[in-house]
Automatic annotation (TrEMBL):
Designated name of the protein: RQC P-site tRNA stabilizing factor
GO terms (BP aspect): rescue of stalled ribosome
Keyword Transport among UniProt keywords: no
Region forming the signal peptide: none
Source species of the chain: Heyndrickxia ginsengihumi
Length: 87
């Protein structure tokens, strides 16, 4: 599954266009390697996403083409969430 679609379906990022922009800015890594919006995501991959002042690391648990809002959080597990101070 494409990275931008996974982020939207799992609701880690609300819109696919926003997920594409974040990936194009180099703020997403898959298993430690910088990822593009078109990068492939597999079960077991570790995503690191930089949201402004916060860095979230999540592990992919399930891949689904569509999901309901209450099931979206089952697609990933949050490994860590850190605040980053940019000076």
């Amino acid at each position: 599954m494409r990275l931008d679609k996974f982020l939207k379906v799992s609701r880690l990022i609300k819109r696919r266009t926003l997920a594409k922009e974040v990936a194009d800015q180099g703020r997403i890594q898959i298993n430690g390697i910088q990822a593009k919006a078109s990068s492939n995501v597999k079960v077991g991959d570790e995503l690191t996403i930089r949201f402004g002042q916060k860095v979230v690391t999540a592990k992919v648990v399930h891949l689904k083409e569509t999901t309901r809002k209450d099931e979206a959080a089952d697609m990933y597990t949050i490994i860590s969430e850190k605040r980053v101070n940019e000076d």
